[in-house]
Design a protein that fits this description.
heterodimer; A: Rossmann fold; 2 domains; six-stranded mixed beta sheet; four-stranded antiparallel beta sheet; 28% strand; B: alpha+beta; Alpha-Beta Plaits; 75% helix
Chain lengths: 226, 304
């Protein structure tokens, strides 16, 4: 599903964000990518959604080699990968409903279908009655649920979560992780980037540990080892 | 395509109202810009029309010797009329000149009696020449230097008017030049102010633009709502400007007409007959400026 072949990301001749990274994430897997701040975890996410391009090596999503993806193809790629971020990245001038439906509107989905699908997804993430609220009227946990709903509404095969619990308390964090596990059970490949030891240890799923731009450990049912 | 247009217009309207204060500030800046540029343009129009009115009052009279026949004078008139530089040639015959003289001096019985005492009409035939431009008089009058014509001419008042004509011509050129320079500086400043206001407006949306890109928006889906929003600013700004300018013109125009008393200067008539042109130019200026500014500003933030 996601394949990195000897990928390096070099910002200047002596600054390596990633150094010769190779990994393969299979369809339906739940993988945690862990490591301390500044070790290259977020660079992996940025390469997956083509926010950055690899300096060396190849990045393949499904059957699509996106290493040299063209500017106009990026929106098509991003409509197939759900992404959630630590700072939620919700559109502040749009309501919960509009935030979730935005991706579908961009993709040219008809309004009738949007009106059917969005309330269903909001119900799944537990925001059934809050669709007319603006992000500023929601708690952190609710904002992250909105972001998850926005990522899910495409029915993506891959969901990438970049530090999704970084701004949340432990109760909200557990709820978000439970939601991610549920999404994974429906068959979506989940890539969770985090440095939250508790969460990683409670998951008992595959753990890839990154340190100074390199993968130092890849365990099938791993723990946070740093 | 229809769905794309519908959604981008919907997003533009939403953006406009949900960011009402920012929209209002942008519109106010646009109104001030349009207003100022129109006023500067208006002053240029007044100056130009005033100069034209003064120019219109200038002509050159050519007086013929008493013995010259009417046919010869008409010949000279026709030759002058053929010149492209000449706007009009008025022939005043001896008898018409006498009639005019009588009317001018109708209250002075002594003069009228003196005229009556004379056996022959002492006044000569005259032709009054009006050129298209002040600068054309020397060329036109050069034709009269021809010995054939020169022999018929008693006098011409060009030499009396020469200094006035040359000074006026010089002054009108200077006024036009200064007008162009001041207007250009003003337009550049106005453009920069609007450009920066819209840039700040877009800057406040930079994160929003990045988010749109991250969830799969194409560049056009990000750009077009902002462009429509800019067009909305322009339309509203032009409506407000016209709503302020025309009533204000109604107040100012009589004062201007009084100031240029005796000259043909009717600002209300000018503004009414050029209404579509003025509003069209204001609209084109506002739309081009705001759309260009927002397009350039967005470009920087869509590279995500």
């Amino acid at each position: 599903m996601i394949r990195f072949r000897n990928v390096s990301k070099i910002y200047s001749p002596d600054i390596y964000a990633l150094k010769n990274v190779s990994l393969h994430i299979k369809p339906g897997e739940f993988v945690s990518i862990v490591g301390q701040s500044g070790t290259g975890k977020t660079t992996i996410v940025k390469l997956i959604i083509a926010e950055e391009k690899a300096s060396k090596g190849r990045v393949i999503i499904g059957d699509w080699d996106i290493t040299d993806i063209k500017e106009r193809e990026i929106p098509i790629l991003r409509r197939q990968i759900g992404v959630i971020f630590q700072d939620f990245k919700l559109l502040p001038r749009k309501t919960v409903f509009e935030n979730v439906s935005f991706g579908l509107e961009v993709a040219g989905v008809k309004q009738k279908k949007i009106n059917d699908v969005v309330p269903q997804v909001l119900k799944i993430v537990g925001l059934g009655g809050k669709q007319e609220r603006f992000p500023r009227q929601l708690s952190g946990g609710e904002q992250q649920r909105t972001a998850i709903a926005r990522a899910l509404v495409y029915r993506p095969k891959i969901l990438v979560a970049d530090e999704p619990t970084g701004n949340l308390d432990s109760i909200n964090s557990q709820e978000i992780v439970s939601l991610l596990k549920k999404i994974n059970q429906f068959g979506t490949t989940v890539v969770l980037v985090t440095h939250n030891r508790e969460i990683v240890n409670s998951l008992r799923k595959r753990v890839i540990t990154v340190d100074q731009g390199s993968i130092i450990s890849d365990q099938k049912s791993g723990k946070y080892i740093l | 395509m229809f769905l794309f247009l519908y959604r981008t217009i919907k997003f533009a309207v939403q953006g406009f109202f949900r960011n009402f204060w920012l929209s209002l500030v942008t519109i106010i800046i646009l109104v001030l810009t349009i207003f100022s540029i129109t006023v500067v343009a208006g002053i240029n129009v007044v100056a130009e029309q005033a100069i034209e009115s003064v120019q219109d009052k200038i002509d050159v009279s050519i007086y013929f010797k008493p013995g010259v026949s009417e046919e010869e004078v008409i010949n000279v008139r026709d030759r002058l009329q053929e010149l492209s530089l000449v706007e009009s040639v008025l022939y005043v015959s001896k008898s018409e000149a006498l009639e005019k003289f009588r009317v001018q001096h109708q209250d002075d019985q002594i003069i009228l009696d003196s005229i009556d005492q004379l056996e022959e009409n002492p006044l000569s035939a005259t032709i009054v020449v009006k050129a298209n431009n002040l600068d054309d008089y020397p060329t036109i009058l050069a034709v009269l230097e021809n010995p054939e014509i020169d022999a018929l001419v008693l006098d011409k008042n060009f030499d009396d008017n020469k200094l006035v004509i040359s000074r006026l011509s010089d002054l009108s050129d200077k006024i036009k030049r200064v007008g162009i320079i001041i207007s250009s500086i003003f337009v550049v400043i106005a453009i920069l102010i609007v450009f920066n206001t819209i840039r700040i407006n877009i800057y406040t949306h930079r994160e929003e633009i990045a988010i749109m890109k991250l969830v799969g928006s194409s560049n056009w889906f990000v750009r077009v709502p902002f462009i429509f929003e800019s067009i909305m600013y322009a339309i509203i700004a032009v409506i407000i400007s016209v709503a302020i300018l025309y009533p204000l013109l109604g107040l100012v125009a009589p004062q201007v007409s009084n100031f240029f008393d005796g000259y043909n200067l009717d600002l209300i008539e000018y503004a009414s007959s050029n209404f579509l042109r003025i509003v069209g130019l204001q609209f084109a200026f506002a739309v081009i400026l705001s759309v260009l500014s927002s397009s350039l500003a967005i470009g920087r933030y869509t590279r995500v």
